[in-house]
């Protein structure tokens, strides 16, 4: 088991480059199933989840060529429309193969992802929407089995805002007969990036980024080239690390507009912020001020930044209130932060964080992707040495984090535990 060993208490200073967005790359890789021609992608992050998705697609017969951050996929000679449990159980986003397979091949058999550490994470909205488009969908021995001759456009209203649900249904609708309207659609930038890629492939999608997405189905989609957008959560994570260590960091290659809710909260905490077309600079001199945070769908405060902010709030000169409204169990970083001296009281889906002057280094254990980022941020700020164990959680969503942190002056190394 690999660990990060971090000697904290050093200010982060310098410039860090953001990789492509994991949560845009994953649905876009699945979009390759919708055409027999090449989908050429750039700025694809080199992450464990991306490698898992590529393995899953290759298992279906998709030809994959990867050179660094460039990936070319071709689903012209598919051999299987099954996404097996052994791969799906390691990455829930595998469910994003369901609708492209049903749309182009009329058949899909995708293992139910099952829950994960942060919650039950059902996929009932994906299934409800696909049925509305005319597919016959059964749950059979832990698999979602979808059969459809040709999907027919429909008006779909999801019961709650769902990011991958919106993405899956968009990919079902692009080849359906007629018009589909998705109401209550997710507005995350990653949804818009998928829509942009699909339109480059010949789809006819409008309204992505708003609560109402309209898709006019076409007969076939062709190949395309697409550059994956920057990862706003990675960018926000480095901004939080800069704030927690009272540093001065410029995050390069991000989209400031996508981070407005995050930078607004960092400003409330006393951070100095400047930004340009593709960069944000954060400097922090004293202790952060306390803040009140409530996670909501985009453009509100992102749930994927909640754990990172808790690490910053742990050092604030007052009490912060953090409410998690998206997932039912996304406070698993709390007991680990407490091992470093954080004072946090959880009451239902709200955590009250009473800031302390300093945190102490400790041996802690990652439990999920964003919790691991939170622990790294706390360890960077803490006095003394920490180890963060179970790094496979971190490697799912952060490319070469220890290298990027060392460039910023952190004393961090990856060790075999
Ligand atoms: C996406 O997950 C992201 N993953 C998550 O990022 C992110 O936390 C989440 O959206 C919310 O922003 C990817 O994009 C690959 P949801 P997703 O469907 O789509 C409930 C990370 O750290 N729901 O928007 O699975 C669900 O239980 C990951 O990068 C249903 O009940 O999330 C949750 O409470 C973690 N039924 C809420 O909706 C459904 O059919 C929002 O979930 C679908 C969702």
Notable features of this structure?
four-stranded mixed sheet; 24 strands; 417 residues; elongated; 26% strand; binds ligand EPZ; alpha/beta
Describe this structure in words.
The chain is of the alpha/beta class and 417 residues long. 30% of the residues lie in helices and 26% in strands. It is built from 14 helices and 24 strands. The protein has helices spanning 22-31, 48-59, 85-88, 98-105, 124-132, 163-173, 189-200, 232-244, 260-268, 306-313, 333-338, 369-381, 392-395, 401-407, and strands at 2-7, 13-17, 39-42, 63-67, 70-74, 82-83, 107-111, 136-140, 143-147, 155-157, 179-183, 204-206, 212-216, 224-227, 248-252, 272-275, 279-283, 292-294, 319-323, 343-347, 350-354, 363-365, 385-389, 411-416. Strands 22-23-1-24 form a 4-stranded mixed β-sheet, covered by helices on one side. A 4-stranded mixed β-sheet has the order 2-15-17-16. Strand 4 and strand 5 (70-74) form a beta hairpin. The longest helix is centred in the middle third of the chain and has 13 residues, at 232-244. The chain starts with a strand and ends with a strand. The model has no long low-confidence stretch (mean pLDDT 97).
Summarize the structure.
With 417 residues, the chain is an alpha/beta fold. It has 14 helices and 24 strands.
Produce the secondary structure layout.
Blueprint (H helix, E strand, L loop, with lengths): L1 E6 L5 E5 L4 H10 L7 E4 L5 H12 L3 E5 L2 E5 L7 E2 L1 H4 L9 H8 L1 E5 L12 H9 L3 E5 L2 E5 L7 E3 L5 H11 L5 E5 L5 H12 L3 E3 L5 E5 L7 E4 L4 H13 L3 E5 L7 H9 L3 E4 L3 E5 L8 E3 L11 H8 L5 E5 L9 H6 L4 E5 L2 E5 L8 E3 L3 H13 L3 E5 L2 H4 L5 H7 L3 E6 L1
Parallel strand pairs: 2-15, 3-14, 6-7, 10-11, 18-19, 22-23
Antiparallel strand pairs: 1-23, 1-24, 3-5, 4-5, 7-9, 8-9, 11-13, 12-13, 15-17, 16-17, 19-21, 20-21
Helix pairs in contact: 1-2, 1-7, 4-6, 5-6, 6-7, 8-10, 8-12, 10-12
